[in-house]
Design brief:
522 residues, alpha+beta, six-stranded antiparallel sheet
Length: 522
Amino acid sequence: MACAAAGAIGLGNLGARPRIYSGASSDGIFKLAAWNTLAWSRSSSILGAAVSFSSRSVSSRRRLSRVVLVEASDQSTALSDGIICLVIGGGGREHALCYGLQRAASCDGVFCAPGNIGISIAGDATCIADLDVSDSVAVISFCKRWEVGLVVVGPEAPLVAGLVDDLVEAGIPAFGPSASAAALEGSKSFMKDFCDKYKIPTAKYRSFTDPSAAKHYISEEGVPIVVKADGLAAGKGVTVAMSLEEAYEAVDTMLVQGALGSAGGKIVVEEFLDGEEASFFAIVDGHTALPLASAQDHKRVGDGDIGPNTGGMGAYSPAPMVDSRLESLVMDTIILPTVKGMAEEGCKYVGILYAGLMIDKKTGIPKLLEYNVRFGDPECQVLMMRFESDLAKLLLAACKGELKDIEGLKWTKDPALVVVLASSGYPGNYKKGTLIKNLDEAEAAVRGVKVFHAGTDVDSDGHIVAVGGRVLGVTALGKDIAEAQNRAYQAVDVVSWPDGFCRRDIGWRAVARLAEARHRHR
């Protein structure tokens, strides 16, 4: 099916009861989500206008139609009355959430605002680039007009800003914590004080606004030591200092130079914990918490876990160290006390609790490094590849306080691994607008691979270009973690992007464990 190219279409120009058509397909079959209907159409003449890109420039196999507004009235192919979902955000995590939602049987359509070009190309959601997600009034208006039955907020910033509060007050189910509950991530000092009050195991710490006092404390404690910005810093507010000079520099960067703005106006200095990190996820409805699959990410930019911290250069799931014993221990000592404590503080927690853990090398006891109040990025990518239950149904149950009624969640036994492709220079300065080729070929060449987009766009010629630091998440399933790793890197090597780079050792701990286990059983 071909759609004629047109200029940008403003949502304000829609007539009464419009219908939306969106997707990408090589054979003309497209998903039609419209005011409580799900339909499939092979019609060669659609009334309306389209924003489209040529199949030669964006994809050698598919024609992209980002948004098509249709006035057609034929509803004879309507199949069900399911949930229309809106995902807030535009990164790799949000692409993965769209991917998970559009596979859910209870979901009839997925919007993503602002979304990104990769989400549109894949047909995983209809992207609404001109919806201002910082404007709660605009988001609420959109949800009411399109009868959105579930809003899933991906990034931390809208959560801390109170978008969920505004949506819930308007009667729109929204998955994510309130602004007050989001302080678990929005303020490191709040989280540490909370852990201290409710006896949740974490590293020894002190909070500072005075650089001299912070440096005095560091000199007394010695190194290695960790310096963290109190507020949100896009994954760049943590320094693991191996020398006093490095620690003092981190203090000055945040408190004296103000390099992180208000996020670094207060800092937390905490002890360095020696062990292995793991990411633990639980879904919470205010009272009940259900554990999700485990994952492990790689924060450092360089192979061998060297170099500065990043937002995450790769991840895999499950994390071999998180067995049933450790899962029970984390739930009993960290997750459930947090849920109970937040309720006692008057800010009932609804959403994802993402606990960054350090498993003590000597004792095996998990300690809480930090909380995130949303799915991790890139951990979300591997979780969504493995998740087999109905995601929309699960998230809506959490919004309604009905997780106790959810039966066991289903996950594929196959491990998943994601390799992040980033712009050269990241996490420092990097060039934007660099050309990326062979993305379709990467997915087609290797079985079990999905490429999630985080920082991509199209240039004036319709070619995919990089516009962010972390740009792509090449994700693969395998019968074991070694196969998942091998498949992911096979696909990475198909991608043509001279101005990008990646780590070449994602999953090395898990692969080493697997090799050791095989050796023992010979």
